[in-house]
Structures are given as C-alpha cells and as structure tokens.
Amino acid sequence: MSIYLQHFALQQEPFSIVPDPGFLYPSHQHRQAVAHLKYGLDREGGFILLTGEVGTGKTTLTRTMLQRIPAHVRVAYVLNSKLNETDLLASICDELEISLPKAVDLSFSKICIDALNHNLLESHAEGKKTLIVIEEAQNLSDEVLETLRLLSNLETNTHKLLHILLVGQPELVEILSKQNLRQLNQRVVSRFHLLPLDKAEVSNYINHRLHHAGASGALFDAKSINIIYRLTKGVPRLINLICHQALLAAYSLGLKSISASLVRDAAIEILEGLETSPSNKKRILILLLIGFLVAAIFTITSLKHPFSDHINLYFSKSEIENSTKDVILRDSQGPVESIPNNTIIEQFNPIQIDAEGNSGNLLVTSDIKEVKLLKPFDSLLELWGLRSSEIYTFDEFSAFALDSGLRVERIGDGTINNLVTIDRPGLALIKTDVGISRSRLVIGIEKGIVSLIVNGEVQNFDYETFTNLWSGSFVYLWRPPPAFEILQVDDVNQAAIIWLQDKLSLVNVSESRLITGGRYTAEVQAQIMQFQNQQNILSDGIVGRQTLMRLNQITDQNIPTLGINGS
Which of 394, 431, 393, 432 lies closest to 410, judged by CA? Predict the structure, then answer.
C-alpha cells in the first residue's frame, strides 16, 4: 500500500499498474471493444482477436469481460504464452479441470485432445460454451497456433465447440497474415484494435481512477493533465506510472495537489528509464542511420577492455555492416540494463564541419560550481552553454543534444571508477529519503567526495554514501570531432587528419607536424598509439571515443569536467 494514501484521504492506490477490473475506465474505445468481444462470443465458435500497443489496457479489459461473462460460459485463462504444444494442451485441460486418463500407448497430445473433445461434447449437451483466453498471443509459435486451429475444428454436426480469444500486441496481426497461418486467420470472427485515450479521455481517466480510489475532488489541474497527455500519448500504463510518481513527490513535499512542475519531474524519472516506444524507436533509428553513414561504431572487443576505445574508425566493409546491425538492435531495445561495470554503451554520429575543418565548438560561459537550475536535463545542458525549453524526456534530451552537436552517452551499471574515467558531469539516478529515484547532476569528484546539485544547491557525499544511494545509471555529454569516415592506413580523409594533427600538436608542441597529404599514415597511427599509451588508453591505434574525448579534454579548457586531478 502506498505511503501517500492517508495524505490524500484515499482508500486505495489509484494508479496501480495491476490490471484491476474495478478501475476500468469505460472509454468509447473500451465500450466498442467489449461489444466486439461479446459479438464474437455470441457466434458459433471461432477466433476472437483483441490487439493493442503495450499499456493500452488489453489485460484489464479482458479481465473485466471475464468477470461479467455469463454463468453458462466456461473459461480457460492461459497467461503464459511461451509454451510448446504439449504444455498448452496441458494448461487448457488443467484450467477446465479435465481429468486425463493414463494411456501408455498414446502420446500425451493425443490424450489431451481426446479428453478435451469428450469434455466439450458433454458441456455442449448441457447448454454450456467454452472459451479459451490466451494473453500475449504474439509470443505463440506457428506450431502452437496451428494446434489451436486444429482445436477449433472440434465440433458437432451443427456447432463449433470452442471460442478462442487471442490477446496480443499489434504484431499478432502480422503473424496471422503469414501464408502458413491463413486458415486460422480466416476463422477470426471478430477483431478489435485498442487505441490509446484521446486528450479529453485522459482527464476523465485520471479523475475516474481518483474517484474510485476515494478522492473527494480533482488532484491534477488542467495544465498538469495536458502535460501528461503530451508525454504519454494517452497510454494508460504510462499515465498510471507518472501520476503515481507525482503523488509520491507531492506527499514528500507536503502538497495536497499536483502541479505541472511536479508532473514534469515525475515524467523525467519515469520516462527516461522506460523502454523506448515504437514511435520513438523509429525516430532514434533514423537519427542513428544518418549518423552511421559516415561514422564508425564500437566492436565486441570494447566489452573486453575497460579502457579500450569503443568506436573503431578503421573497419573493413563487412565488419562495418555487421557492427551497424548490432548497434541499431541494441538501441531499439531501449535503456541499457545490467551491463558490465566497465562498459560504456554509446552512439557515435558525425557533426557538420566548415570548409576549414572546424567543428564549431561551443564556448562554455557558466561556472560548473554555480549551476543552480532545478531541472536535471537543463542543468547538464547549461554546463555546455546551452539553454533548452520544454525538455522532459530522455528522448527529447537526446534529440536536443544531437541538434546542438553533442552526443548523449549512458551507462546502466556504473561505478565510481567509471565516473573518474569519464571525467564529465552527468546525471546520476539517486534514491531520495522517501524512496523516490531522482536524477541529480554530478558536478565534481575530488578527494573521495562526490558533489551533486540537489534542489538547486551543492551537496557533497563521500564515496560510500553516494554508492549506496546511486542506482548505477549515469548519463553524460561529449562533443565528437569532425565527421570521420571509415579509415584504414593509406585511406584519404583530409578533414579528419587535419583535426587529429591539430589536436596532437597542442598536446605535444615539440612534435613536428607530419606531411600526410590527407592520408592516415602509419606515422600518424604511431602518434596516436603514443598518445594512448600516455593517457592509459589501450594502445591499439584506433581513434575511438576514449581517445577523442581525451584529446578534446586536454586541448579545450572550456569543456566541462568533474575537476579530477585539476583537469
């Protein structure tokens, strides 16, 4: 039970993500869905299809329907869809309380089907119907779907004996459209796709749940509800998560109503940690594809060496193609979880350069120790001389950084050593006194002390305290150099070589500038390896993220750092 119930005079938690039928909001969409399900059940057998995006309320709707189902309808409710044919048949028989005879000379599948057919005939004779409900049906294999189709063949001379309701995500429709499943697809007697709530319904949905939980009035004002709709696109599960987090925040501050600012803070904490939505996946993939046209990507070897460069600029064509597929797949799966402590998951995209090869570096005018902004994303951008507006989510933050010539990096299971190696200010997910996780800006590490911005003020924590409060998630920014093409020794890339030699000459003024003709020569590679060795970076001649960041850091005093060793 939530700690804020008494504070808001609530009888139960209003925004639990548990699919409680008692909280079902009867939107126009949901009423239509119920009508379609009822229509399918009234038909003489066949398949009923209910689809919808993640979090739209399919399970809640299904359980509501099952609570109101007529007494003469028996139900087998299968929650685990990752079953083989035998396990599925066993689950259905178990749900319908069908006793299975022991027959040594028959397969278990044959025993189940015969027993099920006999039971269905008896139930039909008694005037009963039988409904099989399968959740997450998009996970069913083609073999299991074919088994279900064969079950739907169980019939008398005049009546089908089974109704089968498949509940799943939109990809279920694509699966059933496959040529080998056309027979099943033709037996679907009713279909309905559940859409998210519209703007007006979001307000009604929130107030409906609050009223059902015992609230005497509205807790969210119109502006806060507008923000919720914008960020969730009407997906009920996301609405529940943000509203719950906002109520927790209001309770911790002693407030009796939810303002727009509380919703923004709650949304940042919730949405930055969730799996990226399909629409956002598409946007991110487009950005990545553009970037990877002229940029390199990290290899699997980067996972084996804590200080190796993660972006290899010098791959063969086949290596590039394989690695690109791997990176795009990683990003399409949303936030990184449970990665090794020394692993940094990154994106590398090119930035535009002018005719002289300049990257358009941003001058930072703000003092890192004087940042007093309360919004974590804005605070981090401020350190790079950037001001933003209306940034609430991780996706919006990443897009804004990309447009500004910066790149967002994220580690999911970091350590203090990771932060020391990165030496960049960033956002750490910190537990508060009331158990809420919030992003806090890490601005310094010095002599065993980690400095954070908390509610606009600098607070210092020793390593042990910080580690106990920190989830391990850390987001930071860096600025890539001019766009590098994929290079091997003797390849020509004048802009890249000019940039490298400019930086190397600043690091070692006594080093003579090499004449390369715009080629990445063995001599330039030797210089890179020497620099890597001096900086405790794996000396492999690969110009990757660690090398690029270190070159920038040493040669540009305006780049914000954590102040480690006076850097």
Answer: 394
